[in-house]
Design brief:
The chain is an alpha/beta fold. Helix content is 30%, strand content 16%. A 6-stranded mixed sheet has the order 5-4-16-15-14-6, covered by helices on one side. Bound molecules: ligand MGD (2 copies), iron/sulfur cluster (SF4) and molybdenum atom.
Length: 687
């Protein structure tokens, strides 16, 4: 159990695949000290990221919201006045009731994402929505392209146990900057390197901190990994690395794929990716001859207009060689589907009406501006409740998003821990608790533990949990569901029991429950997630989403990305910053001190041609917007590629316009999402 008496068990709630098991130093019933990773958890293994180790800075931050607020200034300003919870909730309920009366219940759009990953506090807004027949949400902003990309081939959102990385001889971190975004992966990589002399390969368009530690860094042009994957497969077939027996048993159209790949040579891919033929041949040979090769697929490659097709192309690799058959071999994108949780009570699935319209959260800009592509003949969005997300900063096509939020006829309630850029557009702001101040249940995509995170300190001032807001508003608006009459712990206990999982008391005593399927299942040796059990090289894309019919039938370089052109000669990546988590932690002194300011990484040769020096002010632009920031000369990327590590609040940019002013809100195939790393821009020096 816990190693020191003053350490209390918890779980990191942030939007990170690691979902660390934590041990929190509780100083008194209102104060915490440092946070540590739980040593007894086989995935966390005593490690947490630095930003959460310093969580006292965030939970005890002087700018935490302490009371409900009513806006007194212009939308987007920071002029608010404190009001009581009752006044605030009455006002929100009145606005929702009025919108419903005027336009129908679909004009109310509860909007949320994963600022907390706790299943009760995050997903309870779904129960609130369904009970009141409000518009539904396509929850696409992060997984819109990754999920269909993985599902298209494997048929199930599961993969190899990440702890098996320790038994691999080759680990490929493909478009995940794990040092920054899921540090625990690096502990398991370290075990393999130390114990077995495993090689680490990183595939990423810039030399990020993870690539710096790699044995081989493949640095392709953004959005070109489909070509790289095809050329690798070409070599695997050509040089006898294909496992014919495995292919016949476990895959759909191996012969058709082999014929299709004949023209996808390393020379062809070199021209598209900017890699050399030798790099491609070298990596393909290494991969082909290493049975215990583990591909950890991150999100980066999917955040392009061709992202789902690319995700699928890379997921084909272990099936060619049959690497799935070996311990430490195969691939993992997520294990989010291994948890046998009955979500009916938490999400109110029993009162969901599928005929109610669904709006894509990634298209919040067009939606709020009444784009007919989104709202068709339906009513405008007239009122919103926003929890656990900061769309005025994180959503694509920011100028459109801000224009939408500035609408005088839109009522917005934001429930937040801080006065974010989004909260500044709210009519009513409600103060939220942090994970240390409320109870919740957590699953994880990056490992296999179901965990309980119980409240360990008193809520700050008048801050209240999301669940309180769902219940209080439902009661005022006449929304009915047993979940609104239960506490968080009662919902957790009932859910665990309904799911046939260990109950609350057991989970509390044991802290976590490992849901990892056995080796056979995790390696798809009992078949992939399709009726015939075969991995699909040739997916049924139309079944994955309404734009699926546009996609290439077989793995390929799908040339639908926003290409650089004469007017926009650079490709921009907006990859995550190490000390932030999306926009969370952009308020903590420790993170701000390390990240300093929004920075443009630009190749020294490009900088020279544009008269840009180290530390110069620069402006990036395209037809959607402009942002102003500071240049850093950096040779760890191809010429013509730029990186701005994000996501900084908008006010940190010299012109107050955030990085997502440059990104587009057009829907990637097959099912929507956002192409955050697929942006063509021009660059100029600021005078
Ligand atoms: N410190 C920190 N941790 C985080 C986050 C954060 O903002 N900061 N965000 C959290 C969230 S919400 C998520 S979804 C995960 C995401 O974490 P990751 O899985 O790591 O995915 P991305 O953030 O999209 O980007 C990862 C890498 O992909 C690269 N990339 C971009 N385009 C391409 C491409 O075309 N090909 C290849 N091969 N690589 C490409 C980027 O340069 C970046 O280095 O991290 C979570 N953890
Ligand atoms: N340019 C660019 N844009 C991106 C990305 C990128 O790589 N580049 N990444 C995208 C990705 S992958 C994602 S997932 C999104 C994420 O974007 P968001 O989901 O908006 O994530 P955060 O910015 O961290 O905002 C989460 C908010 O939830 C609040 N919060 C935390 N816990 C609670 C709680 O219990 N209750 C309430 N009421 N509030 C809480 C936090 O204070 C924080 O302000 O951003 C996307 N945007
Ligand atoms: S943000 Fe990720 S790495 Fe950091 S403590 Fe939370 S789950 Fe662990
Ligand atoms: Mo995400």
């Amino acid at each position: 159990m816990l190693s020191k008496p003053d350490l209390v068990a918890s779980v990191c709630p942030h939007d990170c695949p690691s979902t660390c098991a934590l041990e929190v130093e509780r100083l008194d019933d209102r104060t915490i000290g440092r946070i540590h990773g739980a040593k007894g958890n086989s995935y966390t293994d005593g490690v947490v990221c630095a930003k959460v180790a310093r969580y006292a800075e965030r939970v005890h931050h002087p700018e935490r919201l302490t009371t409900p607020l009513r806006r007194t200034g212009a939308k987007g300003s920071d002029e608010f006045t404190p009001i009581s919870w009752d006044e605030a909730l009455d006002e929100v309920a009145a606005a929702f009731a009025q919108a419903t009366e005027q336009y129908g219940s679909e004009s109310v759009w509860p909007y949320f994402y994963a600022g907390t990953m706790g299943l009760v506090q995050r997903d309870g807004i779904e129960r609130f929505r369904h009970a009141l027949r409000y518009s539904r949400q396509t929850t696409s902003i992060c997984v819109g392209t990754t999920q269909p990309g993985w599902l298209a081939g494997a048929g199930r959102l599961t993969g190899v146990d990440p702890r098996e990385m320790a038994e691999s001889d080759l680990i490929v971190l493909w478009s995940t900057n794990a040092v920054a975004t899921q540090i625990n992966v690096m502990s398991h990589v370290a075990k393999a390197r130390k114990g077995r002399g495993a090689k680490l390969v990183v595939v990423d368009p810039y030399r990020n901190p993870t690539a710096e530690t790699a044995d081989i860094h493949l640095c392709p042009r953004p959005g070109s990994d489909g070509a790289l994957a095809c050329a690798i497969m070409h070599v695997l077939f050509r040089d006898g690395f294909a496992d014919r027996e495995y292919l016949a048993k476990y895959t759909d159209v191996p012969d058709e794929l082999e014929a299709h790949l004949e023209t996808r040579t390393p020379e062809w891919a070199a021209a598209i990716t900017g890699l050399s033929v030798d790099e491609i041949e070298g990596f393909a040979t290494l991969y082909g001859r290493t049975e215990r090769a583990f591909i950890r697929l991150g999100y980066g490659l999917s955040r392009h207009r061709n992202g789902a097709a690319t995700m699928h192309a890379v997921s084909c690799l272990p099936a060619i060689c049959g690497h799935w058959r070996h311990r430490g071999g195969g691939a993992l994108y997520t294990n989010s589907a291994i948890y046998p949780i009955d979500r009916t009570l938490m999400q109110g699935l029993d009162v969901r009406d599928r005929s109610i319209r669904t709006l894509d959260m990634s298209r919040i800009g067009p939606v709020l501006n009444g784009d007919p592509e989104d709202i068709g003949e339906g009513p405008p969005v007239a009122a919103m409740l926003i929890q656990n997300t900061n769309p005025v900063v994180v959503a694509p096509d920011q100028n459109l998003v801000r224009q939408g939020f500035a609408r005088e006829d839109l009522f917005v309630c934001v429930h937040e821990q801080f006065l974010t850029d989004t909260a500044r557009y709210a009519d009513i702001v409600l103060p939220a608790t942090t994970f240390l101040e409320h109870d919740d249940l957590y699953q994880s995509g990056g490992h296999s533990h179901l965990q309980l995170g119980a409240r360990i300190i008193e809520p700050l001032a008048e801050s209240r949990p999301n669940h309180f807001v769902h219940c209080a508003l439902a009661h005022r608006l006449g929304g009915e569901h047993p979940g609104f009459e239960m506490s968080e712990l009662e919902i957790i206990d009932a859910t665990l029991k309904a799911s046939g999982l260990p109950d609350l008391a057991t989970l509390k005593a044991e802290r976590w429950h490992d849901c990892m399927p056995d080796f056979e299942q995790a390696h798809f040796l009992d078949g992939f997630g399709w009726p015939d059990g075969k991995f699909r090289f040739k997916p049924d894309w139309p079944a994955q989403g309404r734009l699926g019919h546009l996609m290439p039938e077989l793995p390929d370089h799908w040339a639908v990305i926003e290409e650089a052109d004469a007017e926009h000669p650079f490709k921009l990546l907006t990859s995550p910053a190490r000390n932030f988590l999306n926009t969370s932690f952009t308020e903590t002194p420790g993170s701000l001190q390390r990240e300093r300011q929004p920075t443009l990484r630009i190749h020294p040769d490009d900088a020279r041609e544009l008269n840009i020096g180290e530390g110069s002010g620069v402006r990036l632009g395209n037809r959607r917007g402009r942002v102003e920031l500071t240049a850093m000369l950096f040779d760890g990327l191809q010429r013509g590629v730029l990186v701005v590590e994000s996501i900084w609040p908008n006010r940190h940019f010299k012109n107050g316009s955030g990085i997502n002013s440059l990104t587009g809100a057009d829907s990637p195939a097959p099912a929507g999402g956002a192409a955050f790393h697929d942006v063509a821009v021009w660059v100029e020096a600021l005078e």
